[in-house]
Design brief:
Layout: H1 2-14, E1 27-30, E2 42-43, E3 50-54, E4 59-60, E5 63-64, E6 76-78, E7 87-89, E8 93-97, E9 110-113, E10 122-125, E11 129-133, H2 141-151, H3 154-163, H4 171-176, H5 182-189, H6 199-210
Parallel strand pairs: 3-10
Antiparallel strand pairs: 1-11, 2-6, 3-6, 4-5, 7-10, 8-9, 8-11
């Protein structure tokens, strides 16, 4: 009974949000780069004529930390006619891991790809990631940051788990979720500076800015 009451409360809180990704002018896609298919184009570190490739290992404090000096995964992919269709133009993107371990605290883990931190005209996202975008291009800065905060909230994660019994985070499931209005997301984004706040702070910001607590 307690579990049902808790689940009902989560559902009630989520019902305050009525926007879809389409309403927000956004979509979410799976990363285009399947690395073994383009192995000859991958590079351990950035070189001339390469652009970043982002893996889950690049997630750090809610942002993308690139390049990683000591990494088992490549940091770069050659920019060429063969790889162009696998890349997206530089901009603000929100990334989520597609797979998580059962013992992890959260199923949904989001990070911000900040073009101010990565000087490159294009970027490639590896297939173990999902990326939120606007028509294949980046999002506005505060909108992106607000979306990342919302995705990293306990409320979003618990609601996501209610209807998604597997450990994968698929784009189909993310499209079905409810989201705050654009203005609310922008307000959330204004709270994020150089790193994602801790979990308690993330949840408090969401409650203060977006929820009707009356």
């Amino acid at each position: 009974l307690m579990t049902n009451e808790a689940d009902n409360r989560i559902t009630e809180r989520m019902e305050q949000f009525s926007s879809t990704l389409a309403d927000l002018g956004m979509d979410v896609s799976t990363g285009r780069i399947v690395d073994f298919r383009v192995r000859e184009s991958l590079r351990s570190q950035p070189e001339k004529e390469t652009v970043p490739i982002i893996y889950p290992s690049h997630f750090q404090n809610g942002f993308i930390d690139w390049p990683l000096v000591e990494s088992k995964k490549p940091n770069a992919i050659v920019y060429s006619e063969a790889t162009l269709d696998l890349l997206v133009p530089s901009g603000y993107y929100i990334l989520t891991r597609r797979f998580s371990a059962k013992e992890e605290a959260r199923r949904v883990v989001a990070a911000i790809y900040d073009p101010a931190r990565v000087a490159a005209p294009f970027v490639g996202f590896e297939n173990h990631l999902n990326y939120f975008h606007a028509g294949g291009k980046g999002l506005s800065k505060d909108l992106a940051k607000g979306l990342a905060l919302y995705l990293n909230s306990t409320l979003f994660d618990r609601y996501f788990r209610l209807f998604s019994g597997h450990t994968q985070v698929n784009v189909t499931d993310l499209r079905k979720m409810r989201y705050p209005a654009r203005e609310q997301l922008i307000r959330l984004g204004s709270h994020i500076k150089d790193q994602m706040p801790d979990q308690e702070t993330v949840d408090a910001i969401l409650a203060e800015e977006c929820e009707d607590n009356g």
